[in-house]
Amino acid sequence: MNSVAVHAEQALPAEAYGPIPDDAVAGGVSNIPLTELFVGRDAALDQLDAALAAPGGVVLRAVSGLGGVGKSTLAARWAAHRATARLRWWITADSPAAVDAGLAELACALQPGLAGLPVELQKERALAWLAGHGDWLLVLDNVDHPDHIGPLLDRVPDRGRVLVTTRRATGWHRLTTTLRLGVFDPEESVELFTRILTHDGPRETDGARAVCDELGHLALAVEQAAAFCHESGTTPRAYLDMLRQWPTETYALGPAGTDAGRTVARIWRITLDRLADLPLAGELLRILAWYAPDHIPRTLLDGLAPPPVLAAAVGRLAAYSMITENADGTLSVHRLVQALARTPQDDDPHRQDNDIAHGRQEATRRLRSVFPTDVDSPEHWPQCQALLPHVDALAKHSTPEQDTLNMSHVLDRAAAFREDHGAIEFAITYFLRAHVIDRRVLGEDHPNTLASRNNLAYAYESAGNLTQAIPLYEQNLAHSERVLGHEHPDTLRARNNLAGTYESAGNLTQAIPLYEQNLAHSERVLGHEHPDTLRARNNLAGTYESAGNLTQAIPLYEQNLADRLRLLGEDHPNTLTSRNNLAYAYESAGDLTQAIPLYEQNLADLIRVLGEDHPTTLTSRHNLAGAYCSAGNLTRGILLLEQNLADRLRVLGEDHPDTLASRNNLASAYCLAGNLTRGILLYEQNLADRLRVLGEDHPDTLASRNNLASAYCLAGNLTRGILLYEQNLADSARVLGYDHPVTERARANLSVARGT
User: Fold this and answer.
1) What is the number of other CB atoms lying within 10 angstroms of the CB of residue 281?
2) How many CA atoms lie within 13 A of 654 on its CB side?
């Protein structure tokens, strides 16, 4: 028996067989999402007003930006509150199929009887209606590629308005210009956070600004953090602690009902998934994650891949708004993107432990390769200054346990640059961390460990902290003598440095024998003309000078200058240093007729060899000015000191030790010239600056307080002068010791002021 198949057909209403009526939107049709929490963005809204009001056929405008920056919210706000079209329709357009589905839903909204038709027919009805009418706005949200909406735009060439949101910043040039949406202004993000947090009444808001700063003022992150705090009763300060202690878990948090795909922990995974055909893109992000978020030099990426491949990876990341290519050629990355790229997540293929560790090591290696080794040369200063924020970021985000020898080198060079520019306490932090790395990785006796201990000791010495510096120098000398021998060049340098610290501490009875021993060893081992021998002779002469023994110091200086002229030539920096030192010794001996011509010759040579603005040139001018003042030529001396202070402020900055020295000596010259009012003002400013920059215990701070006290006494204000002298004596005795020459001078000055 044959069976017969019976097919049931769905009965459709008559309206399903005709076009959508012209008056389908007479009463207004809209599915635009609500934006009750909208804040700010006035300029962006105004730009959309202007762009979408333009005459002509279909007017298209794309809003691009990083995922979570608030593109969709901006589009919804404009569509709901500023657009005038009677039809305003929102389509999630992250794929061609999603665009078709959104158009099908539009057709059913305009003519409910179409609900039984296939999606393809519904889409065709909607496109036909749009092509024949003009009073409409389509918002195409989260478009991945311009080609995905090309078929729609081709069908409606002469009507309506289309507003697109997209993470893709490029590829729109054939269709429209894009409005690049950035993060909130700080005030806007704090307003959004506070409105959500206090939605049901007053709440603790202390720390809201800090949370928004930590989240980089990204709209989605701010909204979700505030909603979580509101729902869970967490204070902003507590949330900030969670964010720093448990970043993986906290970035995944959202209030109840949050779409897991819309948390800040997952929002960018979609983009990186789309870049899976270019693995270098993910590696790039994991390297850039360890630097400061802004002004990342492209040189840090040189050699990572062949130039065309590297350019393609940078371009694709920029196209999806994951990084920004700045007009000056540098790159920027949102700090929250960086934070996530540094934070492991087991179920995220882009954030695996090993890959993140490799990114950190590569970022460190690259920073080492570009940070100048010779940080003393002014031509390298701009490069050092540009890289410092990235060193700081790397040091902040890495733990000491993860530090490598590359990190030690980077920290050491950054510290040396900072030390030379007056940021001594900051430099000490990096020198100490570098030394810890060397000891852990290389051992106590490795030459690099000895070098990093020496650098740390020198920084302590520069900060006036001799109690920390001397034991480190003593330890270094003992290690060098045991490992390398008493006459190894490194041992000679270690002995020289220890002697110099003893000299700084006023302990000349220990310093002079070490210098004498060092000179004898250098002459025997290295020869009379070796640079280290000449340096040892110079330092011994300086100690004799400090001890007031100029009859021994001056012949050594004269011999050194003659040797350096013969061996190095008159333009060598060491020759110029020798001439300066000999001139200073002549000045100390009261022989200004010999000192001043040497100073003048040295300044002329330095200007010719190094230029007007080199720090050594500025020091030479400073010394010549002092000699003029000592010779009674205050007019000429003050002019040079004023020029030097202005130049050092411009070249070195107001906090550099040399700038502070210039201000101090200019103040002294004003006082010598009888202009106590100007002198006291400069002394007061200098004391305040040295207290702020160097601290109250630094020898230069003690000297500033002494000089101000002296100026007060000269001006007849004995009460203020004596108070400062008393404070200085107490501090000098505590910091330098009761018998230190500086303490003895402080005691003598106080006695004179008291008239005792």
Assistant:
1) 24
2) 7
Asked if 131 and 45 sit in the same domain, the reply is: yes
Query: Which among 181, 115, 123 is positioned nearest to 155, based on CA atoms?
Result: 123
Which residues, other chains included, contact 532 with Cβ-Cβ below 8 Å and sequence gap of 6+? 489, 492, 493, 522, 526
Query: How far, in Å, CA of 48 to CA of 562, rounded?
Result: 77
Structure tokens at 305: 């891949």
Domain range for 393 is 379-464
Shared domain for 86 and 220, answered yes or no, is no
Contacts of 487-493 with C-beta under 8 Å, sequence gap 24+, read: 487/521, 487/524, 487/525, 489/525, 489/526, 489/532, 490/447, 490/450, 492/518, 492/521, 492/522, 492/525, 492/526, 492/532, 492/536, 493/454, 493/532
End position of a domain, from candidates 133, 159, 180 = 180
DSSP letter at 169 equals -
Q: Which two tokens stand for residue 270?
A: 């979609």
Instruction: Map tokens 């600004």 to a residue.
Output: 209
The three-state (H, E, C) secondary structure of 465-507, written as one string: CHHHHHHHHHHHHHHHHHHCCCCCHHHHHHHHHHHHHHHHCCC
Residue owning tokens 């002697």? 499
For range 240-260, the mean pLDDT: 71
CB contact set of 94 (below 8 Å; sequence gap of 6+): 141, 142, 143, 144
* DSSP classification of residue 399: -
Segment 364-386 shows an average pLDDT of 92
Token pair of 625, please?
Answer: 């000015």
Residues 173, 36, single domain; the answer is yes
One domain for residues 146 and 57: yes
Helix/strand/coil for 654: coil
The answer, yes or no, to whether residue 257 has pLDDT greater than 90, is no
Tell me, what's the pLDDT at 12? 61
Q: Are 637 and 662 in contact (CB under 8 A)?
A: no
User: Whole-angstrom Cα distance, residue 434 to residue 457?
Assistant: 13
Main-chain dihedrals φ then ψ at residue 632, nearest 5 degrees: 90, 0
**pLDDT of 427 higher than 60:** yes
Rounded average pLDDT over 47-68: 78
Task: List the structure tokens of 4.
Answer: 């017969």
DSSP H or E segment with residue 62: strand 59-64
Mean pLDDT for all residues in the chain: 88
Confidence of residue 233 (pLDDT cuts 50, 70, 90): confident
Contact indicator for 546, 527 with CB cutoff of 8 Å: no
